[in-house]
Write a structure and sequence with these properties.
The chain is mainly beta. It folds into three domains: 50 residues; 84 residues, RimM (Elongation Factor Tu (Ef-tu), domain 3); 64 residues, Roll (SH3 type barrels), CATH 2.30.30.240. 10% of the residues lie in helices and 36% in strands. The chain has a six-stranded antiparallel β-sheet with strand order 6-7-8-5-4-9. Strand 12 and strand 13 form a beta hairpin. The longest helix is centred in the first third of the chain and has 12 residues. It is flat, with a radius of gyration of 22 Å.
Length: 240
């Protein structure tokens, strides 16, 4: 049974290329949905139209996991055949070389084949479909290109920083909440999470297998088994 009325924030707009109307997407307060989740939910109706889901700003990075992340920013041309020099905004050439396509917008618009990528010092040299000469490459200078997280294959136990931010940190045995993840650093082989509790106190949590039980991104929760001293004052000689 459908409700007669509903109150909630507008989180996205469905724009139809072959119709004059637009559809607003609303959701319960504080519910978070990605572009892919919305597309799946409205496919029963939008399959008959050429439509695009446009996420509104308050439903993107600040409140939800991003579907598309920055890959690189074009800074200049390179040669006369359309190759471009780019600033890497991801893990570098080896990571980006695994992708077959990039996107011109953070909402997934302007899908373009990625024809090649190689390292040049700390920069990237990339080739994109449709960019075949210096003039076309010059028109790309200053543009940021994005990759789809769905196209990425991360090693087991590795996650996008964007996905971990604002996840709750819970005790795997007791369910006690230690705080939320506000930053992720990768100083060595394992990540280190900055966890902030309700009082604003910061803790550094080493995400090693001995302490990290599991990550549940759907629930926006990270389950841990910390030793004394990580989230509590050191006792019984732990300070030494």
């Amino acid at each position: 049974m459908r409700p007669e009325t509903f109150t909630g924030p507008v989180i996205a707009v469905i724009r139809r290329a072959d119709a004059v109307e637009e559809k607003w997407v609303t959701a319960p307060q504080d519910c978070r949905y990605s572009r892919q989740q919305i597309e799946q939910a409205v496919r029963f109706q939008e399959q008959y139209f050429r439509s695009q889901v446009i996420l509104l700003p308050h439903n993107t990075k600040e409140n939800a996991m991003q579907t598309y992340l920055p890959a690189c920013k074009i800074v200049t041309t390179h040669g006369v055949r359309g190759e471009m020099k780019a600033l890497p905004l991801c893990d570098g050439a080896a990571f980006l070389a695994k992708f077959k396509r990039l996107y011109a917008t953070p909402q997934g618009g302007g899908e373009t084949p990625l024809l090649g990528v190689r390292a040049q010092g700390n920069m990237l040299l990339i080739r994109l479909g449709g960019v075949e000469d210096m003039d076309a490459a010059r028109a790309q200078v200053g543009r940021t290109w994005y990759f789809a997280k769905a196209d990425a294959r991360l090693p087991e136990g590795r996650y996008f920083i964007d996905d971990l931010l604002d996840c709750r940190v819970l005790d795997a045995d007791t369910g006690a909440e230690y705080g939320t993840i506000r930053a992720v650093e990768h100083p060595a082989a394992q990540d280190v999470y900055t966890v902030v509790d309700e009082a604003g106190r910061e803790y550094l949590f080493p995400a090693v297998p001995e302490f990290l039980d599991r990550v549940d991104l759907e629930a926006r929760a990270v389950y841990v088994r910390p030793i004394p001293g990580i989230f509590t004052p050191a006792v019984n000689g732990d300070e030494g």
